[in-house]
């Protein structure tokens, strides 16, 4: 078993091992004396893995309840959150009980936010079942729901008790969703590790899953340790996200998060080359690897549409947007621009 220790306002471990799903109960019992565990899962993931996790928890002595969320970003809303916390209240969950997020990033975000706020905070565990959640969203303590005006507008920093990654669950992940996770993996290489980036060009992520998950989690761990609350260094993890979130919103979330991140990285790198911050070779390498992983690199939305969507982004500070700008493969910087400059950056990135 691979273990990455995360040091934050609450320290915890990220454990990575094929077959770990069947040992979830004993791993969680080592950390929690909870009487009741509530598995929160999506309507696609629960039929695949819910009963296995439930059996593992019951074998470890937990009373187990489960709550099913509708899948998809469009359901990551206050209404869905209210349904979940009302369920907890109706079943008289207490602060000493534990929530288990079994699923992808939406499930993790929703469950984490419920755990952060129900009775002012109860324990929760992340069991991510998508590559994107394993390498990124399950680690670092960001929890949130969306508002009609923007993505992740209501949330909290709230660290889990434990993260359990079982790569076996990726066998049932649709190829499109797997490639979305690859976009986040490529992001880590682009922002801070050229050797890792190049390894992804030589060897497909599928052929080095546990090593890739461990490497990405370790990189994120180190950044979170330095800047847990996202005021400086951690902003680098938003590479591709400023433009990407706008693409998601403009599409009504029909474009998946990982696809939008790929588009956002490509657009930002094009803009960085045009603005003189980045070398052209880095753009060529990025577009090459995104193409190899069959990820999109452009969208049809206008610069005006995207800029309007970006104005409600949580990465805005007053009238300033903090953009993550590549300089070369493995090195990025945070560059702050005024809101009125966003259209120029988007056009430089290829928006019409």
As for the CATH topology of the largest domain, it is Dehydroquinate synthase-like, alpha domain
Assigned CATH superfamily of the largest domain: Dehydroquinate synthase-like - alpha domain
Unreliable spans: none
Name the CATH architecture of the largest domain. Answer: Up-down Bundle
Name a few traits of the molecule.
Rossmann fold, 352 residues, three-stranded antiparallel β-sheet, alpha/beta
Can you describe this structure?
There is one protein chain. With about 350 residues, the chain is an alpha/beta fold. The protein folds into 2 domains: about 1-170, Rossmann fold, CATH 3.40.50; about 175-350, Dehydroquinate synthase-like, alpha domain, CATH 1.20.1090. Helices cover about 45% and strands about 20% of the residues. It contains 13 helices and 12 strands. The protein has helices spanning about 25-30, 45-60, 80-90, 105-115, 130-135, 175-190, 195-200, 210-225, 240-250, 255-275, 280-290, 305-310, 340-350; strands spanning about 1-5, 10-15, 35-40, 65-70, 100-105, 125-130, 140-145, 150-155, 160-165, 315, 320-330, 330-340. The strands form 3 sheets. A 7-stranded mixed beta sheet has the order 1-2-9-6-5-3-4, sandwiched between helices. It has a 3-stranded antiparallel beta sheet with strand order 10-11-12. Strand 1 and strand 2 (about 10-15) form a beta hairpin. Helix 3 crosses helix 4 and helix 12 crosses helix 13 (about 340-350).
């Amino acid at each position: 078993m691979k273990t990455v220790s995360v040091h934050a306002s609450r320290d915890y471990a990220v454990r990575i091992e094929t077959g770990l799903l069947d040992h979830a109960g004993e791993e969680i019992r080592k950390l929690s004396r909870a009487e009741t565990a509530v598995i929160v899962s999506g309507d696609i993931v629960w039929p695949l893995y819910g009963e296995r996790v439930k059996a593992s928890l019951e074998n470890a002595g937990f009373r187990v309840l489960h709550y099913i969320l509708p899948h998809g970003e469009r359901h990551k809303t206050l209404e869905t959150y209210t349904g979940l916390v009302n369920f907890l209240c109706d079943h008289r969950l207490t602060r000493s009980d534990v929530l288990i997020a079994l699923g992808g990033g939406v499930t993790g975000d929703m469950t984490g936010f419920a755990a952060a706020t129900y009775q002012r905070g109860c324990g929760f565990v992340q069991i991510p079942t998508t590559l994107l959640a394993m390498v990124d969203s399950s680690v670092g303590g960001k929890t949130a729901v969306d508002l009609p005006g923007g993505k992740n507008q209501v949330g909290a920093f709230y660290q889990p008790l434990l993260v359990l990654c079982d790569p076996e669950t990726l066998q049932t992940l649709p190829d499109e969703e797997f490639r979305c996770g690859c976009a986040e993996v490529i992001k880590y290489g682009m922002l801070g590790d050229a050797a890792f980036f190049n390894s992804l060009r030589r060897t497909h992520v599928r052929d080095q899953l546990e090593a890739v998950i461990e490497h990405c989690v370790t990189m994120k761990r180190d950044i979170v340790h330095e800047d847990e609350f996202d005021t400086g260094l951690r902003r680098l993890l938003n590479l591709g996200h400023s433009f990407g979130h706008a693409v998601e919103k403009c599409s009504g979330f029909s474009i998946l998060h990982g696809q939008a991140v790929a588009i956002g990285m490509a657009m930002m790198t094009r803009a960085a080359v045009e603005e003189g911050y980045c070398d052209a070779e880095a753009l060529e390498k990025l577009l090459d690897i995104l193409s190899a992983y069959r990820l999109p690199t452009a969208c049809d939305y206008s610069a005006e549409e995207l800029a309007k969507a970006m104005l409600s982004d949580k990465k805005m500070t007053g009238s300033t947007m903090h953009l993550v700008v590549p300089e070369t493969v493995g090195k990025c910087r945070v560059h702050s621009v005024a809101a009125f400059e966003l259209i120029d950056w988007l056009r430089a990135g290829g928006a019409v």
